[in-house]
Write a structure and sequence with these properties.
The protein is of the alpha+beta class. The chain is 26% helix and 25% strand. It has helices spanning 20-24, 42-51, 59-67, 70-74, 131-136, 172-204, 291-299, 312-315, 414-439, 448-465, 471-474, 512-520, 533-538, 588-592, 628-634, 636-659; strands at residues 30-38, 100-105, 109-117, 124-126, 143-155, 158-169, 249-251, 259-260, 279-287, 337-339, 347-354, 358-366, 371-373, 383-395, 398-409, 500-508, 560-561, 570-576, 580-586, 598-610, 613-624, 669-670, 676-677. The longest helix is centred in the N-terminal third of the chain and has 33 residues, at 172-204.
């Protein structure tokens, strides 16, 4: 592989109506949200928040705010008054610029903003006379910060207060400086906002049983667990679903925090399928995305499919859960069986499915034989029966995803339930957090697996760099006979006398038709290169290797193969559909003018061995001027160790993807005694 990669995936926002803050900073690089529900009308809440002291009920918030003036006090500079939490006290004048009200829509929203160099000990603000001036300002070297308080009428005397803070910089260098500032002072700012919202809740009251009153994002909230009063059906009704004291909701970045549902007593789809449940766990999370965006991630769950987005080493046999949507796993129907483990035939039976709304899974296991039987069958003498329901409900704060798992079991399995339920609760928390990250488009490019693999790749590069005498052997890696590298291949005429190059190959246990789609979509701005992603991103490529085939990324003559955002792309000059393509780059103008130059060709091909096996070949040839800088940049001394390690991993990455055998919906419906029949 002759270069690094880049991804064009962008983070998407949850769908909601445009706000005044959206007009001030429509696409910020920092966006943090806190919410709390108050037992007040919007008009009452507006009077308290817009014209009252926001710090009145939080001494900690007042103290943290006072710390911001400490540098001025130490330097004996004049400080006007003490720390104030009143929006009415904000002022900005040419001689003393600062935060000012930019927009106001009583009693719904007020927006406050400022522009300055906030990382300085004494913030260097500039005067912003109007909202239009704030929006249009683009002078390099400054940060634009704005925050808004919005009120949403939830009915029945309940108002949701949303505090949203956004920031962006006018140029990349300033943003990098601001990010360093955030790492140092961001936690204090978030703590101040969290305590401010908690003070509002403490001073003005919150609804004990409002559907979204409980925080889905609070850092200090307890993790989800078994609903109180739901361990046995004979538990007193008054104890079912007892809510903890209401906490103000919080969202940082858009980081969703799953927690125990405040509405444990309400019915959700699937409850009627297991009416005598002995245990029940209900958890929820607020996701900043529409139900139709979240739904495909739910539908593709399953081992051998998209995984479960939890601890893959525990519930997915170590295979990483999908990080993008898989079209082949989107057709889910009632009666299908979703595999629970790669090696097992049992799994979760689809009991009910309402697209974009609810999904109910379940299973019934004969504990004596260890086999799964149809959910509707009569329970054996020793059994374990569960339902697993997912419910999507759109709301003003986002989509609430409620997950409920219910179980009943024979008397002899109480001990089994004792350890299984806490484990399930923990796995579910992780699943909800990871699922929210996927649906909101903020999943990290690299996880620990990428880092570990990248460190191993770097070690291999170091070993290759230290063994230049093995360069010849490495240049024909994967070829049964090194002589094969000497024969002519398409594109060789573009670089007839290469100074160095390689021909690598790998055998894939899949037909050509299954391998070629993965090959033709390579490129930094497309599917990546299936190689050491973390190393590529460390070099600034910002790539995420594709996990599925994208037909829109097919190879065509005249299109480009980008290897790195700062490197001239190769242009595809020859395509044999379904078999190979040749990409080429040549600094012909520099060569004609006698300046440093380089040219290279890259030939990727799939060759059928038989109906079920394919050889995937990667051939690279380069020529360049002999000045020192060009020789170091394009020559084999540094280029060959890196190219060998990255290209070999690319071949293995294609092999892994082409050979993948997702179970899809082929797991048969289980029958008692180990017999089975197709479910569809």
């Amino acid at each position: 592989m002759p270069g690094a990669t880049r991804s064009t995936a962008k983070r998407t926002r949850g769908a909601r109506s445009a706000t005044a803050l959206d007009r001030m900073l429509p696409a910020p690089r920092m966006d943090e949200v806190d919410t709390v529900d108050l037992t007040m009308s919007p008009e009452e809440a507006w009077d308290v928040i817009r014209h009252g002291d926001l710090f009145e009920n939080s001494r900690l918030a007042r103290g943290l705010s006072a710390l911001r003036t400490m540098p001025d006090r130490i330097a004996h500079r004049e400080v006007e008054g003490g720390p104030s939490g009143r929006i009415d006290d904000l002022s900005s004048r040419p001689e003393a610029p600062g935060f000012r009200v930019l927009a106001e829509d009583a009693p719904r929203e007020v927006v406050v903003g400022a522009i300055g160099k906030v990382w300085r000990a004494r913030v260097a603000f500039i005067e912003v006379p109007s909202a239009a001036a704030f929006t249009d300002f683009d002078q390099p070297g400054f940060v634009k910060a704005a925050w808004a308080i919005r009120l949403t009428d939830l009915g029945e005397g309940v108002t949701r207060v949303t505090l949203e803070v956004r920031a962006d910089a006018t140029d990349p260098a300033t943003w990098r400086r601001f990010r360093r500032y955030l790492h140092l002072f961001g936690p204090g700012s978030r703590l101040l906002r969290r305590r401010l919202m908690a003070g509002l809740a403490r001073g003005h009251g919150t609804p004990d049983q409002h559907p979204l009153a409980r925080s889905a994002f609070g850092r200090r909230s307890r993790p989800g667990g078994v609903d109180e009063g739901a361990r046995r059906p004979e538990a007193e009704a008054g104890q079912a679903g007892v809510a903890e004291p209401v906490q103000p909701a919080r969202r940082t970045g858009p980081i969703a925090r799953p927690r125990r549902s405040p509405e444990a007593a309400r019915a959700v789809p699937g409850d009627d399928l297991l009416p005598d449940a002995a245990t029940q766990v209900t958890q929820e999370v607020i996701i900043q995305a529409r139900p139709e965006t979240i739904w495909p991630w739910l539908v593709q769950m399953g081992s051998g499919r998209g995984g479960f987005y939890s601890l893959d080493s525990v519930d997915n046999a170590g295979r990483r859960s999908a990080r993008e949507l898989r079209p082949e796993f989107q057709d889910l129907r009632r009666g299908d069986i979703i595999s629970a483990a790669p090696a097992g035939r049992g799994g979760f039976e689809v009991l009910d499915i309402q697209p974009d709304r609810s999904l109910v899974l379940g299973n019934l296991v004969d504990r004596m034989s260890g086999t799964q039987i149809p959910f509707s069958d009569e329970r054996p003498s020793r059994f374990w029966q569960t339902t697993w329901a997912f419910l999507l409900e759109p709301g003003a704060a986002g989509t609430r995803l409620t997950v409920r798992s219910r179980a009943n079991f024979s008397e002899g399995d109480r001990l089994h339930a004792g350890w299984r339920l806490p484990v399930q609760r923990g796995l579910q928390n992780v699943q909800l957090r990871h699922l929210a990250a996927r649906a909101e488009g903020r999943l990290r490019r690299d996880d620990w697996r990428d880092v570990v693999a990248g460190v191993g790749g770097a070690a291999l590069m170091a070993a290759a760099l230290a063994t230049p005498f093995l360069r010849g052997r490495r240049s024909t890696w994967g070829l049964e006979d090194p002589v094969e590298a000497e024969r002519a291949y398409p594109g060789d005429g573009l670089v007839p006398e290469p100074r160095w190059g390689y021909t690598h190959a790998i055998e894939v246990d899949a037909p050509v038709e299954a391998v070629w789609p993965w090959v033709e979509q390579v490129g930094a701005d497309r599917a990546g290169f299936y190689s050491y992603q973390w190393l590529e991103n460390l070099a600034g490529a910002q790539v995420r290797n594709a996990e599925t085939v994208h037909p829109e990324w097919s190879a065509a003559e005249g299109t480009e193969v980008l290897v790195h955002p700062r490197v001239v792309p190769l242009r595809i000059v020859e395509v044999a559909p379904g078999r190979s393509f040749v990409a080429y780059v040549d600094d012909e103008k520099a060569r004609d003018q006698g300046q440093p130059w380089a040219r290279a060709s890259w030939h990727l091909a799939v060759e059928p061995i038989d109906a079920h096996h394919t050889r995937f070949l990667s051939r690279y040839r380069t020529d360049f001027s002999m000045d020192l800088r060009t020789r170091l940049e394009f020559g084999p001394v540094l280029g060959e160790p890196v190219s060998f390690v990255m290209d070999r991993q690319m071949l293995r990455g294609v092999k892994e993807r082409a050979e993948e055998r997702g179970v899809g919906l082929s797991v048969p419906r289980p029958r008692r005694g180990g017999e089975s029949s197709d479910s569809t």
